[in-house]
Amino acid sequence: MWQWIFLLVLGTVLLISEADARLRKRIEPKPYSPKYSSIVMDADTGQILHTEDATGIRHPASLTKMMTLYMAFEALKSGKVTLKTRMPVSSRAARQAPSKLGLNPGETISLQTAILGLVTKSANDAAVVVAEFLGGSEEAFARKMTQKARALGMTSTVFRNASGLPNPAQVTTAKDMAILSRALYRDYPNQYKYFSLRSFNHKGIEHRNHNHLLGKVAGVDGIKTGFIGASGFNLAASAVRLDRYKRPRRLITVVMGGANRHWRDRRVTELLEAYFAREGARHEVPQTLDDAELNELIYEQEAAEEIAEETPVTFPKDIDSLLHDVSMEEEDSQAKSPEMPVKKSAQGSSTADIRSLPANWVVPNPGKEASKEDTVRTIQLSTVASEKKARLLATQAAKKLGFGRASVQKIQRGKRTLYSPQVNGVPATKAKNACQMLIGKCVILA
């Protein structure tokens, strides 16, 4: 009897062992093959502080998108495109493997959307959209990327696509990726701030930045992650801290060939801590921006394209004839415009009582009443809390009208400071129609 019990127990053990072996075979990771390399560079001087096989050939994976972004920033600077430039999504772009935004063939996206998708989501479809728009084709764009790499001193890098998706001929080194990271910070400091964004909302979906060191490691404010099977887990990171003399010191660290993202992140953190300590830079960091402030910064970058403070909007060539084209229509439009409430000042002169004005009123020239014989008018839009936004609104209005000079008037309402966008020098006969062309509240001032 005991023989049967022994055989039964033995059979059960064997079955469990076989099942356990099958389970282990299924969940054990595949052997790890990519080689490790790393580098630490002083971003200000370019001095290399640490290197471990930093010139060994590796696959860049999505670190590739740093060069795609460099090319986009270069196109912005040259004026070839603006952040609002709409780019078509091809079927080829839409078919790209994840990670991606899920763009549809035939739709268009702005360059700014593509930039944000590349920085946070590491979107492969957005990378191809940018490449096809700026280069004509992804292949042609990749050739330009390689040429730019050589110009920047990246001697061992070859690009074959704009995304970093697997291609055996697409190679780089940790040193070259550090050079590219430094070039982005050095050449495009305003655009570099995009890399600090921790999330990006597209069509109601929040895409979080793949760089998990943001907000966790002191001073880290960029720059890019990457992974494909042939490369392992890569990360180029940049961080800034203050040294003992309160001077900002920025280090760039690149780690390639990590076994997983957690190991990679730990290794980058270790290198940053070690070399900041060696440079006497502690955890104190210069004031950094949160996502809300960064979004405002992005808005400012967009506004900067349309606001030229030193170059006001000019009149059309036939402005002289327009300025003298006075008609009864202008008189009627002025008669229908709201009366500006007036109070007597201590000196007896008439001035506008700002406290009693509607929200969209402001006094362009306090103490001076406009003459009905004037042939130009000022168009005023609703007040806003941001001076930069007011300048943008005024400039957009002047451009839409095709005449006038954008300006901003500052007003104080209690403890609040508001800004009123205006378009000055509007031909009187055109003022009424001009107001109708603009969105939102519009008031014609004498």
Core attributes:
alpha+beta; 4-stranded antiparallel beta sheet; 5-stranded antiparallel beta sheet; Beta-lactamase; single chain; 21% strand; 15 strands; 2 domains; 446 residues
Give a concise summary:
By secondary structure, the chain is an alpha+beta fold.
> What oligomeric arrangement do these chains adopt?
single chain
Return Rg in Å: 30 Å
Protein structure class: alpha+beta
Give me the CATH architecture of the largest domain, please: 3-Layer(aba) Sandwich
Uncertain segments are: 23-32, 302-374
How are the strands of the biggest sheet laid out side by side? 2-1-9-8-7
Secondary-structure element order, as H and E? HEEHEHEHHHHHEEEEEHHHHEEEHEEHE
Name the average pLDDT.
78
Largest sheet: 5 strands, antiparallel
- Fill in the CATH topology of the largest domain: Beta-lactamase
How many helices in DSSP terms? 14
Output the CATH class name of the largest domain: Alpha Beta
Molecular structure report:
Helix content is 38%, strand content 21%. It has helices at residues 2-27, 64-78, 91-94, 111-121, 124-135, 138-151, 174-187, 189-192, 261-278, 291-306, 319-323, 328-336, 387-401, 431-437, and strands at 37-42, 48-52, 86-88, 108-110, 199-202, 205-208, 220-228, 232-242, 248-258, 342-344, 350-352, 376-381, 405-413, 416-427, 442-445.
